[in-house]
Amino acid sequence: MAVRKAMAGAPRPGGDEEAALLFERAHYRHDPRWLLPVPPRLCLACALELLPEPSVSLVRKKHVLSCFRDALMRHASVVMQLVAQDQRVCIHFICMLFGLLCNVEDGSVTDLCIEVLIQLTTQLKLEQTVHCLLDECHKELCNMPSMRGSLSTLTLLGKLVDAIPAVADKLVMEHGNLMEHLLRGLVYPNEGVQASVCYLYGKLYSSPMAAEMLSGHFREKLCPLFLSTLAGAQTKELQINCLGLLRQLLKYDLFVSMIMNKSVLAESTESIDGPPGETSLPLVLKKLLLSRDETLQVASAHCITAVLVHSPAKHAPAFIHADIPEFLFEHLSSSSEVLILSSYNCLILLAEEPLFFSKCHTVYGIESVVRSLQGSLRMNNTELHKQGLLLFAEILTRQPEEIKLFTSSTMCGDANHVLQEAVSSPVLEVAAEAVKATSAFLRKDHQSAPPVQYRELRALLEAMLSRCADFSQTPLNRRPLGHASSRDLEKAILRRGKFLLSALEAFRNACRLAVEFQSEPSAQENPFTAPSAKKEDTLEDFSEFLLSACDSLCIPLVMRHSEEATHPALMEVFLSILHSLFVIVPHMKEKFSKKLAASSFIQLTLELKARFCSGMSHSALNQVCSSFLYYMCINLLSAPEKIGPLSQEELSAMSELLQHGLPQISSRGPESLAFLSDRQYVEGAARQRQYCILLLFYLAYIHEDRFVSEAELFVAVQSFLLSLQDQGEQPPLVVFRASIYLLAVCQDKDSALDEAVVSAIRKFLEGIADLHLVYTHHPLLLRFFLLYPELMSRFGHRVLELWFSWEESSYEELDDAPSAGQPTLPASLAALFHILRSSPSILLILLDLIYSSPVDTARKVLIVLRTFLRRNEDVQVGGLIRGHFLLILQHLLVERGASPSGDSGNLPLLLSLLSLVQLRNESEQELDSMAMKLLHQVSKLCGKCNPIDADILQPSFNFLYWSLHQTTPASQKRAAAVLLSSTALIKLLEKMLALTWAEAGSPGTALLCSAWLLTASFSAQQHNGSLQVHQTLSVELDQVLKALSFPKKKAALLSAAILRFLRTALQQSFSSILVALVPSGTQPPPAPEDTVLAPLGTSQVLSLVIGLQNLLVQKDPLLSHACVGCLEALLDYLHARSPDVALHVASQPWNRFLLFTLLDAGENSFLRPEILRLMTLFVRFRSSSVLSHDEVGHVLQGAALADLSALSNTTLQALRDFFLQVQSMGLLADHSTAETLQASLEDLFPRASLAQPPLQDMLCLGGVAVSLSHIRD
């Protein structure tokens, strides 16, 4: 009391406020323990006396309640400790508060009472308080004559059940008759009471136990009342509470069935124009959808979704008949993400009902879906993106083909752009849904609105594959952190696999679309393109894009993923894509098949079959693998690169074989090899499987996919062939071709076939009409046939013929290649050369091929032989080739008789080879009897030709010329005698020489060169050896001189050949009994001064000299040598008959001009053999006006100062002759220089002859055989 008095007597701030919380009349009696120790300083005892006191104002009571509520919220533990001191006081306080709640009409006070009661009940957690409160509520509702004042009680019950869910079960079990009062409140014409009842019902039905106990109540009484209440609700509070109760009810399948059955009954009642009956839930929800309140729209969509979740097939028709999809589609244009998402979810479930499509709701709403997706993809709401794309995918997938979804190409294009944007989303879940929608979008009926937008489809597929590639390149966390990390890695790989599978399914649908459009003329190209315009955006372009995309993206993606995991479903889709591409791009199927085979796809497919398709497992994958292998094998066999084309019968047989055998193969490589090696009796079906396995190995190996051991395969194929022989079977040609090829490529260098296998192979081959039927072009196969004598003797010729006919290169770049810097041989040719070196007798077969094969093939063989002979000079095969060639030539002459030139075939090629072999011979080699026979036969052949038969005559003349100049003098004499005995050859040469100056009908310049050189050689040999002449030949001297005075353009070699002929005639003083130089036509009598020069005249001599000067000015080395040699012979001839004329010719002023023209080629230009020989000639004939004594001295001085060691033997010889000639003429003025030069020459000349390799004397210039020594010396 002292404290109370002190407090009362001591005024303080806020004292009036605390006083209002105390009941002054009674507070002094209260124990201090009922006073709150924290502000607000409220006394619980005072509150118990103050609140029920009628004399206390309602405002004060409200203030006390508000403060107590605040204390409960701020200091719950302190207040609860105070209240719980005495349970009786606690229950009394609750009863007092409930009484206040029931007796006060002020809404704010009742709300405070309810709030305090709920807080006290929940904080105390005492069963007695809950039972007390429930009993009070029950009594109040039972004693209430009308539901007018029940709002506060109902509200309290609803919030109590919401706060303590377990109260729902107690309320239903212990106060079950209370439900009747709730029904009364539901029909009471006050929407506030109805809203409270619905709220309480919603909380009761949220408990599964209470809901089960109230199921009968709902079925018998509540259901119709609730539906009518929902239908008639006007206030938002009632509408929201009704929808809340409905959401709770729709969680249970039983209540859904009850409500929907009532709805169906109501709709049927309305349809027969009877009196209004039951209320239809779809119509009520449709009404709420039409409201402008977004909350009600969302709640209505949620309720529809809640119904459909239980059974779309059962309940969707009611909503569809109510046209609810139409309004849901309209809501997709809303700006509310929640409403759009709710509409998406609802439409996804409605799309499971076919009626949704047959009533054309999708045709009506597809534009709204596309526009909604366009807008939603700009929002940052992943769930919205996913559900929108899921709805789009469902519509695209389930839309009936007969009802076109996109009515215009514009709308289809908009959908395409949406999908392009969606598949590029950085969120994987969104991109995955977009890929599924893309897969459904790629359907013929969705794309058939003309024109088909192939360019847009291509962009969509590119975006999809690009996203797939980006995802596959995301690095995986492979750190070994235990089982959890391993599971995460497996999940990541699985996620990648699923995404890739969806992308491949979409790509497969694109391929299927291309196949289907192939039969649609209107889909081939844009029908609105002008006829003259360039055709773009066509099916053909799209098809080629599919092939390119598969090659550059799909295949690498799948191969990269298969390194981490292999999924049968994914591989099934992948292989079906590859299969369809054979149909989509038929003109590329062979090339595509070859690329697949070279990329180990035969091995990949067989491994898939072995891993997943054993027994009856994964039958679909087995079928796809077998079908893919079948078409790839047929494509490879239909357009082979290394074998001849198969006949239609062979293809049909292989097709049937592969169709039946491939599905039965599901073994790995070693198992297949063991099966192939089985030597026991093999029955028909097993044999067919062996054939299939062998073909697969063959096609894989031929495309460098060697996925089984070569040594084991080599043994297996041998066993297979012996098994066939044992059972007396003849394999199909394709199978036997595969067997031989595999044996050839798998045979090790050190291993060899058993004789039994070789014998079996020969027996099989002898039963085949032609070797080309089983030939495969490969170097190892050629080696295989040539390695075994038993096979080479019988089939060597044909296999080499096939080899060269299949060689793509003509080898022209190897022909006539210089010995230095030889080009690298192709691998196939290097292999052949290796075989030829080990077995030179094969050259005879090649020689036969040159004679008997088609010209193109023979040309290849000739070049190969030429190249081999050039690069393998150590291989002595000349005698072998010449002997065989002699037989061929004899046979030819007998066969063709008098006209071998007619249809000469490959004879020129043989003769060309013979010339090459002759060129390889060492010089100064005796001619044996075979060589003499060849000379005889070749000369005989030439005699039967016409001058125009250059293809035969040119190599023949080359051979004859080289034979004469590449042997010893004794052999030369014998050879010349043989050749001179051929009168036909001499007559031919006479005709050809006469054609040199003919205006028409002249043979080629090269052939004329050979004819002049050969004639000069014959004349020289006959004159030197006094050989018998059987036929002379006449040459018009005037024409010879004219040809030298007026030479043909670009015919230096021809001029050199004629000069060689004229030089020979001059050296013989025109006394040859073989060659008669006759005048042209009727000539006037020679002048007296010309008699001594006969048959030349002075004018002819001068004309010839001028011609020689002109030819020398051309500075052609070979021609210069020929001119100087001819000039030497001319001056010798003139000097023998008229020394004065010879001196006059040698001293012509033009000779000096000529000499200085030749010397105008740079420093030490005089150190050239032809110039040295020319100066020697002028010195010899004392032509000081041409070359003075001082100039001779300068030449010698220059020679003494020059580096003579760098000069060739020919130049040194010419310099030595010049020095000796000067010395003999006494023109050495400077004796010291002369001695120095002489010492150098005497020291250097012998050593140079030994040190320097001799220059090649025999050359082929422009196809003409030339001996440099014959022209020069």
Describe the structure.
With 1273 residues, the chain is an all-alpha fold. It has a two-stranded parallel ribbon. The protein has a two-stranded antiparallel ribbon with strand order 3-4. A hairpin with a 2-residue loop joins strand 3 (1258-1261) and strand 4 (1264-1267). The longest helix has 35 residues, at 483-517. The protein is elongated.
> Ends: how far apart?
161 Å
Question: Could you give a short account of the major beta sheet?
Answer: 2 strands, parallel
How many DSSP E strands?
Answer: 4
Strand percentage, roughly?
Answer: under 5%
Structural class: mainly alpha
Task: Based on Cα principal axes, name the global outline.
Answer: elongated
Query: What is the number of helices?
Result: 65
- Average pLDDT: 84
Fraction of helical residues: 55-70%
Unreliable stretches covering 5 or more consecutive residues: 1-17, 271-276, 1250-1254
Strands ordered across the widest β-sheet: 1-2
Query: Radius of gyration, rounded?
Result: 58 Å
Summarize the helices and strands and which ones pair or pack.
Elements: H1 2-9, H2 15-20, H3 24-27, H4 44-50, H5 58-74, H6 76-83, H7 87-103, H8 107-124, H9 127-142, H10 151-163, H11 166-174, H12 178-187, H13 191-204, H14 208-213, H15 215-232, H16 236-249, H17 253-271, H18 281-290, H19 294-310, H20 312-321, H21 324-331, H22 337-350, H23 354-358, H24 361-376, H25 382-398, H26 409-423, H27 428-441, H28 444-447, H29 454-472, H30 483-517, H31 539-562, H32 568-584, H33 589-598, H34 601-612, H35 619-638, H36 648-661, H37 669-676, H38 684-702, H39 710-726, H40 733-746, H41 755-766, H42 779-787, H43 789-806, H44 827-838, H45 842-852, H46 855-871, H47 878-896, H48 907-920, H49 929-943, H50 950-965, H51 969-980, H52 983-994, H53 1005-1025, E1 1033-1036, H54 1037-1045, H55 1052-1067, E2 1075-1078, H56 1088-1091, H57 1098-1113, H58 1117-1137, H59 1139-1146, H60 1149-1159, H61 1169-1180, H62 1189-1201, H63 1209-1224, H64 1231-1251, E3 1258-1261, E4 1264-1267, H65 1268-1272
Parallel strand pairs: 1-2
Antiparallel strand pairs: 3-4
